[in-house]
Design brief:
The protein is of the alpha+beta class. It has helices spanning about 15-30, 45-55, 85-90, 110-125, 140-145; strands at about 5, 60-65, 70-75, 90-100, 130-135, 150-155, 165-170. A 7-stranded mixed β-sheet has the order 1-2-3-4-5-7-6. Bound molecules: coenzyme A.
């Protein structure tokens, strides 16, 4: 399944919030506190405000499969305080709010979204695609490793949020996959 990645508009805010709620319930059913308020995740209203700002800035994207929103990603240059150093922020784009609709799980939509982040990093002459993942969700960490990312570190001690597992992948690796040293099954390497 090859989605078309298009820029998200304000009309997509409801869909993005629905995806967040859908996946939070999925995570809870799997025994994870990722994104729950109890686990210090953002309440949905706070999430909606944050996504609204990203939509305004043109930083959010939708993976469109035959006119259906199959997933979303936000890519910008900002991260929560005390996660990445100023130098690390300067040479990277940062991925946020990547979510794939459960109806489209297993179709590698996430890999297309991450390749899009790689393309944006390339276009903006940024050497790295970086993200923070939920600290305690080791299955999610495994997902990012399979997607060619490496754990840089667990942020601390000043970073106190629940999402402190810092992952990164070199932008060039989307064009030259051997650079990661990680086998990314079926990644397609070049996102173009
Ligand atoms: C991460 C995500 C966008 C990847 O989408 P995708 O590339 O289309 O991949 P899939 O949804 O098919 O998931 C691939 C595998 O990773 C696992 N996985 C993905 N996110 C996970 C999570 N947050 N916690 C535990 N396992 C997760 C899936 O269970 C699946 O495992 P399986 O192959 O054994 O069934 C999607 O799984 C998702 O929306 N996850 C929940 C939200 C999330 O954690 N986003 C990342 C925030 S940093």
């Amino acid at each position: 399944m090859n989605p078309v990645i298009r820029q998200a508009t304000f009309g997509d805010l409801g869909t993005i919030c629905r995806l967040r709620l859908q996946r939070t319930a999925w995570l809870t059913a799997r025994g994870s506190d990722q994104w729950t308020v109890a686990g210090h995740g953002k309440p949905i209203e706070t999430f909606a405000h944050a996504v609204g700002r990203s939509l305004e800035a043109g930083e959010s994207w939708i993976a469109d499969c035959d006119g259906e929103a199959a997933g979303t990603i936000t890519v910008n240059r900002h991260a929560d305080p005390h996660l990445w150093s100023p130098c690390e922020l300067e040479d990277a784009v940062i991925v946020h709010y990547m979510i794939v609709d459960l109806r489209f799980a297993g179709h590698r939509i996430g890999h297309h979204l991450l390749a899009h982040a790689g393309r944006l990093a390339h276009d903006q002459h940024r050497k790295w695609v970086r993200l923070d993942a939920w600290t305690t969700n080791t299955e999610l960490h495994d997902y990012y490793r399979r997607a060619g990312f490496q754990l840089r570190r667990i942020a601390g001690p000043l970073a106190t949020g629940p999402s402190c597992a810092l992952f990164e992948r070199p932008t060039a690796s989307w064009y030259h996959p051997q650079l990661t040293g990680v086998v990314v099954s079926g990644s397609g390497g070049d996102p173009r």
